[in-house]
Amino acid sequence: MREETAGVLETDPLSPMEEREERGIMGQEREDEGKCQGQPANMDTQNSMTETEENCVEVCTEMEEKGKEKGMEERELKKEMEMKLDAEVKMELCPSVPGLQMSFIRGTDLFGYVGIEAVLDQMRRKTMKAGLEFNIMVVGQSGLGKSTLVNTLFKSKVSRKSCTPNYEEKISKTVKLHSVSHVIEEKGVRMKLTVIDTPGFGDQINNENCWEPIVKHVNEQYEKYLREELHINRKRRIPDSRVHCCIYFLPATGHRLRPIDVEFMKRLGKIVSIVPVIAKADTLTIEERQEFKERIRQDLAANGIRVYPQKEFDEDPEERFLNDRIRESIPFAVVGTDKEHQVNGNKVLGRKTKWGIIEVENVAHCEFANLRDLLIRSHLQDLKDVTHNIHYETYRVRRLNESNMTFSELGLSTWPLENGTADKCESESHL
After folding, report:
1. Residue 250, domain extent
2. In the chain, how many domains are there?
3. The CATH number of the domain where 262 resides is what?
4. Cα–Cα distance between 192 and 121 in angstroms, integer?
5. Which residues does the annotated region (Disordered) include (predicted)?
6. Mean pLDDT, 10 residues at a time, the chain of 431 residues
7. Cα(235)–Cα(216) distance, rounded to whole angstroms?
8. What 3-state class would DSSP assign to 341?
9. Residue 9 lies in a domain
10. How far is CA 134 from CA 139, 196, 375, in A?
């Protein structure tokens, strides 16, 4: 008896669906037995019918069991995914602080509408009221269309040449930096745009150390921000004059990077976000352009030059996927113009030639649209974040560590630390 009861207990309890199926089968078998006793003449036909019915029931039960197993697998997978997401969110939201208990509450677990999402509207209103600042530097030889491209990017005359009356192009004997600021407003959003031009870069016979004034300017802006940040009574909002992006113009030679290009990007890539572009790309055929871009990418990798966006700064898979597509397009082959032409009844920005019109914003003609999307529409805030959290933070750490800065000595400093120019540091502090 004990063995029998043990065997009964070991069997799995039947679900309600399986009980119904079993009852149905048992009832069917009893009916078939009664019919067989009452009508022995139709025994063969009844047997064949019961066999087919039993087979159908078995097939149905097998399909239902498989469906249940699949449903269970899908539910388990969903539960595992939810558990992983919860764990990731908890890892982000719950730092490992001893003695601190924290739980994650989903929106479905709330009793009603709280209104946390309204903070996005608050941030939007605050940003629109305060406005934002964006500082862009353009570097390259004279005649590569730097001013024209900047005007094309912002669809207004914001470059140094456009703002200077009776401007005459003269080759500067040394590299000089000129800054022009504008306030651009679009749909209620105000942006203070500062364009920093570098006339004289690469125009001399001897271009040795021609990048030093640019490196010095970038570090001076970091130093200026650091001083404001370390004041005891600092401003509520520190003016931001740091360079957020440097567009480096490469001449469309069709060969490789020149030594001056390699040296400049090596030094500047450590302290600012560099975006290389091929200027006046309409002088190359599509095949020449692709080969030139491939050679440039090889030279960048061979020389360890870091250009924006860097792989190590990708925060999540979605951002990595987007940035991988951008990295495949670097350097951008661009064409700039501020003149409009009629194409199929529509006004488009383009360069008119004897054989047709090169449309600046047409991706089939050039990659200006990709550059504009990167700088303004998709990565403008990320450029500012990388400048503040990576480049400025690196400068700040070096400045505090190497100079042994204290608040009492802060007012004695006169020169910024040359970040990215030389590895040597003087034993005596400038502060």
Report:
1. 130-159+174-407
2. 1
3. 3.40.50.300
4. 22
5. 1-52
6. 41 47 48 46 46 49 53 57 50 55 76 85 86 93 89 84 58 75 89 90 85 94 93 88 96 90 94 95 91 94 93 86 91 90 86 88 91 92 94 93 61 51 37 30
7. 25
8. strand
9. no
10. 17, 11, 10
